[in-house]
Amino acid sequence: MQMQGNCIVRSFVIATERRDKNLYPSGSDFTYQLPVTLTNVVGVAVRDYKFGNETLVNQNNKLLRIYGDAGAIDGTIELTPGNYSNSITLLLAHINTLFVPYGVQFSINNITSKVQLTFTGPAVTDYIAIEFGPVLRILGFEGGIAIYRTTSPTGIPFNAQTFLTTANASNSYDAYNNASELVVRIIDVEALLSNDSVTNRCTAILFNNTDSTGKTVHQCQEKFTPLLQTQARLQALRIKLLNMDGDLYDTVNNEVILIIEFYCAP
User: Fold this and answer.
1) Where are the domains positioned within the chain?
2) Least confident of 31-35, 171-175, 178-182, 211-215
3) What does the buried/exposed string (b/e) look like for 56-82 if buried means 16 or more CB atoms within 10 Å of the residue's CB?
């Protein structure tokens, strides 16, 4: 405990691996019981943090939803989570093994260096469409994609549609920069930093992790953030760790450590 101005400062180390795992199986959604009850909390600051990047393919983006041949091949393909050395080529090799039964394959165009989807066998007789999501975004696509034999399909149940005999990504690259952004949401403690509706950052503190090793530790706030209203009594912190899509952050069972300071009026 220390004093800063007229405030009493209380610091706490919160480590996700120290949670009650029976009550809170996810390290991204748990309640932390403060060792003491705080009163008249007027501000909060996160002094240090340590966390690793989400893997390139993780629990939040491992599914590809596909449609085709008037519903005959509708289903979900599940990728194996992993970093794939942050290489689009290695990621495509894994995805292509899953698409062999459908007779379609992803490849990198030798001229444009963009990812494309083409037919390689007769399994699909009419069309195949892939719903837009994080994996297609990683591959450089800006919307859902579809390829067809003769007639452009209609009524595909997703918004972004590109109906081409060869579906090409808009971006060209191989090495993927798998930087992560972590949103720590302390529910019921209002620290207004942003009104981002996706991650609900009106109650959040945002960090960036672009370290090549996937982990970083450093000072991240020099001054506390005033709360919208004084918290008369604070005994437990309801914490959620989110990624920038608003999903629970996939920690891959790696520990996330936060040092949080609370500023209390006397």
Assistant:
1) 2-54+179-264, 63-172
2) 211-215
3) bbbbbbbebbbbbbeeebeeebebebe
Confidence of residue 213 (pLDDT cuts 50, 70, 90): very low
**Global pTM?**
0.74
Provide the pLDDT for residue 43. 83
Which pLDDT does position 16 carry in this prediction? 92
Q: Which CATH number fits domain 2-54+179-264: 2.60.120, 3.40.1350, 3.30.230, 1.10.1420?
A: 2.60.120
